[in-house]
Amino acid sequence: MRVGIGEDLHRVEEGRPLVLGGVTIEGAAGLAGHSDADVLLHAITDAVLGAAGKGDLGAHFPSSDERWKDADSRVFLTEGLRMAREGGWALSNVDATVRAERPRLAPHLEAIRESIAAIAGVEAAQVNVKAKSGEGLDAVGRGEAIGAMAIVLLEAAPRS
Ligand code: MG
Q1: Gap from CA of 63 to ligand 1 centroid (Å)
Q2: CA of 57 to the centre of ligand 1 (A)
Q3: CA contacts within 13 A on the Cβ side of 54
Q4: CA 6 – CA 101 distance, rounded (Å)
């Protein structure tokens, strides 16, 4: 088994869609970023790459590369998991926390969980997503940024 950790933070930017775990949340201010700024998928992908010993998101998908301009971050997770699989690893489970003052994420957590499971090709039961507010403290608490943390467990893939 291998464990990996990931974390990310993006600045809130009005006029962009808010995408979390591949789900677009209507009526909320979005996040600044070179890609679609899906802070949750970025954290999860970094955790996958970390567990697989494959470096980090920025090394594989640099924001200096025009290919990733406004990119759908689902591609990053798919590619990260492909690299892990190449190394002989399969996703066992992922647990993540999104830190956001706004919007209230509780009503969206199930859809986000199902979206991540679909991208990763695993059961929804292997994915858990939690939400926390910032209690008015730090950039997240002031509503200036949304952050995410993730941890994943990889297991040796069954040989076929
Ligand atoms: Mg990011």
Answers
A1: 10
A2: 8
A3: 25
A4: 20
Strands (E), 1-158: 2-13, 18-20, 23-25, 30-31, 89-99, 127-132, 145-156
What size, in residues, is the chain?
A: 160
Q: pTM (2 decimals)?
A: 0.96
The residue type found at 149 is M
Count CA atoms within 13 Å of residue 116 on its CB side.
31
Structure letter (DSSP) for residue 158: P
Structural tokens at position 75? 């591609």
Helix, strand, or coil (residue 53) = coil
137 compared with 160, residue with greater pLDDT: 137
> With 0-12 CB in 10 A as exposed, 13-18 as middle and 19+ as buried, what is 152?
buried
CA–centroid distance, 32 to ligand 1, in Å, is 9
Name residue 48's amino acid.
V
Cα separation, 89 vs 156, whole angstroms? 5
Q: How far is the CA of 9 from the centre of ligand 1 (A)?
A: 6
Dump pLDDT digits (tens) for 85-137.
999 999 999 999 999 999 999 999 999 999 999 999 999 999 999 999 988 88
